[in-house]
Every structure is written in structure tokens, then in C-alpha cells.
Specification:
Blueprint lengths: L12 H18 L3 E4 L2 E4 L1 H5 L16 H23 L6 H9 L16 E5 L2 E5 L5 H8 L3 H4 L5 E7 L2 E7 L9 E7 L16 H10 L6 H6 L4 H9 L4 H4 L1 E7 L15 H12 L3 H20 L1 H4 L1 E4 L2 E6 L4 E6 L3 E4 L21 H14 L20
Antiparallel strand pairs: 1-2, 3-4, 4-6, 5-6, 7-8, 7-10, 9-12, 10-11
């Protein structure tokens, strides 16, 4: 584990929380509420039976009065809550655990903005577990740690974890330290699929159905007659529905303070729609825009000089943008489709992709993201045109 000492991560509370977790485990086992099975803490099923009915505790009330019985019930509920939290700190949280945390009125509610469902889970103070699926993201993070400058623009990597039959990597939780932030996931690149994913040239009927489901006029006459399209054709069609092809980035999802994530943004395509969506996200905060522009310029400068970046295609990765009342942050995330290119190839990440050249337009997208963000109006500079809501947010 190689972590930048200047990053302030992991938090000092990490080791304290680890010790507290073990103390909770010992206490729960001594009370008979949990047991260790294969090294993992399990809540005894008998301790959950009483939760089947919210009034089930009343049947065991003693003659000393309801107040004492209620106190016993509250103590039991506290123990069960501790058990859930002990589990949450030692294993990927299920939906039930996440709901339990939210029901307890936590001020640090945890959420997943985008990506595959159940791919992430809170691990401890300031860390998350990410499920490993395909590729070798662990190796990517270890390689990124070899360039100190790259460590400053990506989540800190802590360790690889095997839990049950699944594999996870433990990463810095970028939301840690922010208070109910505004969050945006921007996927970079003009190509968000690997070349290996489109090598099969067999036309498929299921992909044709997906295409006409989006746009009945999209298939050519030949494709209509055969009612089939290739994977390459479908993937390129799909990316033409957003700003991916034209700008080299698309707004994948975003979250406003106190609101659930907005994920239906893949049809935000034109420059005007992208600017309006960015403007809506920033809410006229000119100070946030300026600090974000400075951060993106820093990321761009690091990538332009990175040796690792010149020899790897970075497909499907995103920039995660966060801000609250006092903090602004942006980091590169998601390296599941990062691949080393052949030795005789050096990438600049701005050249148009052709099969075999491994260019993915990553820096082309970052260049345009900076340009578009610079056009977003703030309260100090009123817009030249009346802004409209982006397509996905129109009523």
C-alpha cells in the first residue's frame, strides 16, 4: 500500500475505527448476538427473530412496568444496530445494510452515482470496496502509484480483498470529507468500448432490435432487410446518441444536494444542451467553476506528461466532480478497461480512432470539457441566451 503522505489519506480515524470494529465484534459475540464463521462475523438468526414484529417485545414484558421493557427493547435494538455496522465495516454492504444506515439518520449517507449495480460498498471511514470484474484494475492502480503525480489525480489504492467467492479492491472514498456534495460523473473519450469487444463481425438480430428501439430510422436499407447489425455498428450508433462522438465526453450522471441521482442523461448531445446541464449543476457558482477549471487543467497537465498514459489506452474512464459549500474536487476514476498498447505504439489520446491504432480520444474529451466549462455562465456573468433545461430534465 503506497499512499501519498501529502494527501491526508487515510484519515487518522481509520486505525481507531478498525480497533473499535474488533471491540464491537467481541462484545456482540459475548452477548450471543453474533458468531464468527469462516473468519466473517455473522448475526445469529435468533437475534433477528424478535425483529419480525415491531411489537413482539411486548409479549415478554415483565411485571416491573412498560418503561423497563421499553428500555430493554431499545438496548436490544442498539445491539442489532451495532451488529449491522460491524458487518458493514467488514464486508460489502447489502441493500438492507445501506437502508439500515439511512434509517438511523446518518449524516454521511452513502450512495452510488453510476456504474453497475452492487459494484461498490462502503468499507470503513474514508474507504470503499469495488468489485473486480474483468481486466485487472488492481494492476492498473498499482501501476498508477508508480507515478507520484498520477496519485494526486486518482483515488488512493489500499489493498486487494477476497471476500467469499468475490474479489474487491479497497479504494479511497472520494466523497469522504464532503458534506452532502453536488456530484457529477463525466465519461471521457470518443470511444467507450475496447477493440476486442467489436472484433466479432457477425450481424445480430438482438442488436438490431435495440437500435430500432432507440431510432427506427437508424438502420440502413440493407440492415432493415436482414434485421441485423454488427456489434461495431451498434456501439458506434449508441455513442452517437450523446456528446461522446462530437465532444469526446458525455455527462453520465449527476446528483444535486438533497436529491437522488439523475442518470437519464445519455441523450444530452448538443453543445447547448451540455452547457445548460453544466450550468444547472453548478447553480451559478462562479467560484466553483474557476476552481474546477484549475483542477481540470492540473489533471490535463499531469496526463500530458505521464509516461504510463502514453502507453495505455484508457477506455470508459470518467472524471468524478464534487463540490459542497467549501470544497471542490475532481479525480479520474474507473480503470476496468485500461489496457497496455503494443510496444511500437505511443498514444496522444487526441487522434481519431481507427481499428488498430488504440486511440480513444481521452484528452480530446478533456480539452473540450475544459472549453465547455469555460462557457458556463455564472451569476457574475449573465448568459447571452436564455438557458433551457437539458433533454433528460424536461418535464
Amino acid at each position: 500500500m503506497d499512499i501519498n503522505s501529502n494527501s491526508g489519506f487515510p484519515p487518522q480515524s481509520y486505525s481507531t475505527a478498525f480497533n473499535l470494529r474488533n471491540e464491537i465484534k467481541q462484545y456482540l459475540m459475548s452477548k450471543g448476538l453474533s458468531k464468527l464463521k469462516n473468519g466473517v462475523l455473522k448475526v445469529n438468526s435468533s437475534s433477528n427473530k424478535g425483529a419480525a414484529s415491531k411489537d413482539s417485545w411486548r409479549s415478554g414484558c415483565c411485571v416491573t412496568g412498560k418503561r423497563q421493557c421499553r428500555k430493554q427493547h431499545e438496548d436490544s435494538s442498539l445491539l442489532k444496530f451495532l451488529a449491522l455496522n460491524a458487518l458493514e465495516l467488514s464486508a460489502p454492504a447489502s441493500d438492507a445494510l445501506l437502508r439500515s444506515q439511512q434509517m438511523q439518520g446518518s449524516n454521511q449517507a452513502w450512495f452510488q452515482l453510476s456504474g453497475h449495480p452492487d459494484a461498490f460498498a462502503p468499507a470503513g471511514p474514508g474507504t470503499i470496496w469495488k468489485k473486480c470484474s474483468g481486466g485487472d484494475e488492481k494492476a492498473v492502480y498499482e501501476a498508477l502509484a508508480g507515478e507520484p503525480e498520477l496519485r494526486g489525480i486518482t483515488p488512493a489504492y489500499l489493498r486487494h480483498v477476497n471476500y467469499g467467492s468475490q474479489s474487491f479492491i479497497e479504494l479511497q472514498d472520494l466523497l469522504f470529507g464532503f458534506r452532502d456534495p453536488h456530484v457529477m460523473d463525466v465519461k471521457l473519450g470518443t470511444r467507450t468500448f475496447l477493440e476486442s469487444e467489436v472484433e466479432n463481425t457477425v450481424a445480430r438480430h438482438d442488436l438490431y432490435l435495440k437500435m430500432v428501439g432507440v431510432d427506427p430510422d437508424a438502420p440502413t436499407e440493407e440492415e432493415h432487410n436482414s434485421q441485423a447489425v454488427t456489434k461495431m455498428r451498434y456501439m458506434q450508433f449508441r455513442e452517437q446518441q450523446s456528446s461522446t462522438c462530437s465532444l469526446g465526453f458525455r455527462i453520465e450522471a449527476m446528483k444535486f444536494r438533497g436529491s437522488p441521482p439523475v442518470t437519464d442523461l445519455k441523450r444530452v448531445k448538443s453543445d447547448e444542451e451540455v452547457i445548460d446541464t453544466m450550468s444547472l449543476f453548478l447553480g451559478g457558482r462562479g467560484d466553483v467553476r474557476q476552481r474546477l477549471l484549475a483542477r481540470l487543467a492540473e489533471i490535463k497537465n499531469v496526463l500530458d506528461q505521464s509516461v504510463y498514459f502514453k502507453k495505455h489506452e484508457v477506455v470508459g474512464s470518467s472524471i468524478l466532480i464534487l463540490y459542497d459549500d467549501t470544497k471542490v474536487g475532481a479525480w479520474l476514476i474507473d480503470f476496468a478497461k485500461t489496457r497496455e498498447v503494443p510496444e511500437d505504439i505511443t498514444l496522444n489520446h487526441r487522434v481519431q480512432w481507427e481499428p488498430g491504432n488504440h486511440e480513444e480520444g481521452f484528452l480530446f474529451g478533456l480539452d473540450n470539457l475544459i472549453k465547455v466549462l469555460g462557457k458556463v455562465p455564472s451569476k457574475s456573468s449573465p448568459p447571452n441566451v436564455t438557458p433551457t433545461k437539458p433533454l433528460a430534465l424536461k418535464s
